[in-house]
């Protein structure tokens, strides 16, 4: 069984409650779930949020959408993933994050196929990025998730789930999904108000006539309206991870 786990919380420091922000009349998280449900290779999708009262709204949204929801530790996200997966005994777990409303199910399926064909412990399209920031996806075997739960000890390793793999790559067989030409310079994630403005403009342009719009459709739109791509160019990839490392090292 291939289990997709979508992590989401409302306590974003840069854009609070972003996952519940209205995007064409539905919460942004609901729009992302709608896209993820188009994957042909995910057997099941669940949302993993925190057990804090402020995240109860996420659980209620999942109930309305008939999507399973697990509530666990806020900061120990690795433990949250591990506990969320246990009832399903998955052979593989796909890690997804709730700030990616442009997530492409076809890219996710490509990653899953690469991972399975290579029999890797862990695979991603973001270790050596060539996709837009916001199309990130990772997949690991169930055994690898158990290894991470056992061996990851630092605050950053617990919060960022797969950071242990990056730091100890020699312990794992790793697959990388790459695309050419690289689109790593594009920012399609939502961490800042300008990010949401870009995503909202993309949805307004594409969703009404094509709810299942693809990465290529977005690229065509950006080619026609190049000013859109400059709306959110101030911020760097993986700023959240950089912040965690700075706190851990007291920088």
TrEMBL record:
High-level lineage: Bacteria, Pseudomonadati, Pseudomonadota, Gammaproteobacteria, Aeromonadales
Family annotation (CDD domains): GT2_SpsF
Protein known as: Glycosyltransferase family protein
Domain of life: Bacteria
Record-linked SUPFAM superfamilies: Nucleotide-diphospho-sugar transferases
GO cellular component: cytosol
Organism of provenance: Aeromonas caviae
